[in-house]
């Protein structure tokens, strides 16, 4: 059976579809908490107090390019900057180790960069779930109970963050459809049909989803 990796735009329903897929296929659903647990097993000393939110914040923002360069050239905060540089160099390999360990069994992995960490996995079905911006904004409004302006701001922010995160770690473009086995517009199909397509891609006979 396959390993499905799900990389979804904010508001495209990725979490719900991944959960339905895992239930229909009878395989574990590995999301943030499960992947963090694997990370702690692989590198408990470094990640004892970390979770993925903190990792992403550190990698993408705590030392921006300008701040990092200033710390190095002026000597201010150079120890922290060098520690950050070491962590940045280590993080891509750590991510690959975590996801390779997760993919030792059939499962559904919900992680935006999993496709890039497992490009040559023989049983991986890399899936990108997308939807038009207007649909995603409306979905975000319904789920978070916020106004449209706030929803649009957050959806666009997440799009930029996904792109930056994946590019920083793996030097690939998350919007490059060639990186995925399937790129699906979730606004055009109902969830049951989407799950049937994903099951078929993994060589699993589609059937009725649990109620």
Widest beta sheet: strand line-up:
2-3-1-4-5
Give me the CATH architecture, please.
3-Layer(aba) Sandwich
The helix/strand series, from N terminus to C terminus, equals EHEHHHHHEHEHHEH
Number of helices: 10
What's the short version?
The protein starts with a strand and ends in a 10-residue tail after the last helix. The chain is an alpha/beta fold and 211 residues long. The protein contains ten helices and five strands; from the N terminus they run βαβαααααβαβααβα.
Question: What do these coordinates show?
Answer:
The chain is of the alpha/beta class and 211 residues long. Helices cover 58% and strands 11% of the residues. It has a single domain (3-201), classed as P-loop containing nucleotide triphosphate hydrolases (Rossmann fold), CATH 3.40.50.300. The chain has ten helices and five strands, in the order βαβαααααβαβααβα. Strands 2-3-1-4-5 form a five-stranded parallel beta sheet. α1 crosses α10 and α2 packs across α6. The protein starts with a strand and ends in a 10-residue tail after the last helix. Residues 58-76 have low confidence and may be disordered.
């Amino acid at each position: 059976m396959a390993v499905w990796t799900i990389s979804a735009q904010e508001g495209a329903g990725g979490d719900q579809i991944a959960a339905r897929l895992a239930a229909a296929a009878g395989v574990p659903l590995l999301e943030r908490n499960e992947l963090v647990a694997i990370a702690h097993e692989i590198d408990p000393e470094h990640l004892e107090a970390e979770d993925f939110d903190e990792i992403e914040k550190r990698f993408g923002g705590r030392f921006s390019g300008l701040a990092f360069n200033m710390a190095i050239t002026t000597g201010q905060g150079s120890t922290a900057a060098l520690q950050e540089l070491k962590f940045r160099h280590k993080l891509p390999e750590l991510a690959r180790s975590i996801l390779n360990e997760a993919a030792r069994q059939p499962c559904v992995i919900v992680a935006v960069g999993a496709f890039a960490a497992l490009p040559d996995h023989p049983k991986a079905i890399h899936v990108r779930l997308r939807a038009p911006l207007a649909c995603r904004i409306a979905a975000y409004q319904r789920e978070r109970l916020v106004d449209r302006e706030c929803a649009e701001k957050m959806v666009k922010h997440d799009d930029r963050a996904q792109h930056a995160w994946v590019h920083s770690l793996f030097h690939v473009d998350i919007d490059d459809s060639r990186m995925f086995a399937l790129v699906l517009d979730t606004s055009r199909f109902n969830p049951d049909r989407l799950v049937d397509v994903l099951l078929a891609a993994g060589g699993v006979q589609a059937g009725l989803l649990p109620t």
